C-alpha cells in the first residue's frame, strides 16, 4: 500500500518554526487502528487525514496516542495542502469534523480558520497543578484543558513542568498564559496524556485563550505568541461565539508511505 504524505510547518513563515503536522490525503477511510498506527509512526503532535465529501472534506486528527476532537495547526496544514498542492479552486474549504463544520478561507499567503469558541469556567487550583508547574497561577480556569494564568511573559518562559505530574491531571492538557511584552498575550501548552509533552503552537488552545483575553482586554482582535522552543505567531478574532485564527504554513517535506497492508 502506498499513500501520499506531507509534513507541514503550521503557523510558520519559514521552515523549522511553528508546529509540524503530517497531512495524509485519502480517497476513502482506512481502519481506525491503521490511522492511529500511522500517527504513532510519524511521532508528530498531530497527523491529519482527510477524504472528499459533498461539502468539501471530512477531516480527522490523531496524536501519537489518540484521536482528538479539535486541532488547529493540523487543520491549517491540511488546508495548505488542499489549496496549494491539490489545487482547490474554491475560496473557502468546509471541513466536516467531530467539532462540527470548520471553515478555512484563503487570504493571500495566509489562511483564516473559523473555529468554535470553547467554554471555560473558574475552578479551584488543583494542588497537583501547582506542584507540576512549580509556581502558583493567579487564576485557573477549566474547559477541555486547564488554563493557568500568570502575571508576566517571563513567568511563562520560566516554567519547567513536571510532565509526570501533569499526565495525572484529569483534563486533556494544561495551557499557561500571561500578558505579552509585544503581543496581547503569550502561552505554552502541555499535553503529556496525549503523548505531547509540549506542543509548539496549538490552535485549539487559542479557542479558549482568545475569548479569555478578549474579555480581559476588551479587544475583539488580538495578537498572540506561543513561547515554545520553535515558537509561533497567531492573530485571533473573537465574534459571536466563534474564533477566527489566522496564520501561514510551509511545506517541509513531501513523501510516500509504503507498507504491507
TrEMBL record:
Record's keyword terms, sorted: Isomerase
GO cellular component: cytoplasm
Pfam families: PhzC-PhzF
Alphabetical list of InterPro entries matching this protein: Phenazine_PhzF-like
Molecular function per GO: isomerase activity
Active-site positions on this chain: 46
Transmembrane segments: none
Stated family: Belongs to the PhzF family.
PANTHER family: PHENAZINE BIOSYNTHESIS PROTEIN, PHENAZINE BIOSYNTHESIS-LIKE DOMAIN-CONTAINING PROTEIN
The name this protein goes by in its record: PhzF family phenazine biosynthesis protein
Organism (species): Parahaliea aestuarii
Lineage: Bacteria, Pseudomonadati, Pseudomonadota, Gammaproteobacteria, Cellvibrionales
